[in-house]
Amino acid sequence: MEAKKRFFMDCHLARRKYHDADEVWDKLKVGTMLQLVLDTDNRHDPNAVAVVYQDKEQDEAYCIGYIPRTSNETVAAFLEMGWADVFECRICKVNEDAHPEQQIQLTIKIKRNKK
Length: 115
Description:
1 helix; six-stranded antiparallel sheet; globular; Alpha-Beta Plaits; mainly beta
């Protein structure tokens, strides 16, 4: 049987205290699906990948942080080439008591191409 998804990487959510995570903190739970978006306007990192929570009830998107700079180059390349749908990003750990840069851990998987 072929796997539908394959593990790609785990990482912590970077820069979360500088973005909208606090506005939607009560909705950020283990298993919450997030979107990865290439941030082409980021002057600090040419490979910046924003992590976005989509609030479907309010039809609003919140940038809650970024993939760490040390881990974003491959993801950014795929996003730049139009392969955003290949990734599934979910929260795998939340620790309110940790330092803000360690509070949310993400798991990113690659989804099987259905062609």
